[in-house]
Amino acid sequence: xxxxxxxLPSHPLVVHVAVVLVPxxxxxxxxxxxxxxxxxxxxLPIMLVSLGGAAGSFLAKQSGSALRRALRxxxxxxxxxxxxxxxxxxxxxxxxxxxxxxxVYEEHGERLRAQxxxxxxxxxxxxxxMTLYALAIxxxxxxxxxxxxxxxxxxxLVWKTAGSITPTPTP
Length: 171
Hints:
The protein has four helices and two strands; from the N terminus they run ββαααα. By secondary structure, it is mainly α. A two-stranded antiparallel ribbon has the order 1-2. The longest helix is centred in the N-terminal third of the chain and has 38 residues, at 36-73. The protein starts with a strand and ends in a 9-residue tail after the last helix.
């Protein structure tokens, strides 16, 4: 991962992918999952956005490591932001996995039940899609909250603590 992009530290640029896409996916999932017609229409785009957010979180983690080293070399404290970023990375990965599972079950649930021999006699007495959605809501909220906390601590770090430190390019 390059430490700079056009002379700017790559972390503040890359992190915005995660900061935008993860909350967008989380809020979208919460907003549309309760309606069967909306689930069929929007689970694929939500899944793709959540995967993009998880990828952005991973890239933010990678680029943040170089920036952290540069800040420490300059005598700056990074506080709890790296740990909060790690938690947000895990939560965004969990959100992406939940969105993939919801999409796959929504699109292929009947075929999967038939393939594994789950007949109406063995079906649950409630809507499995709504149950999976209800289980995904806490994951979406966790991803949303952890991303907001990590983003806030990063912004605080930049505006109040770090100042303008540019990492030196790695060979």
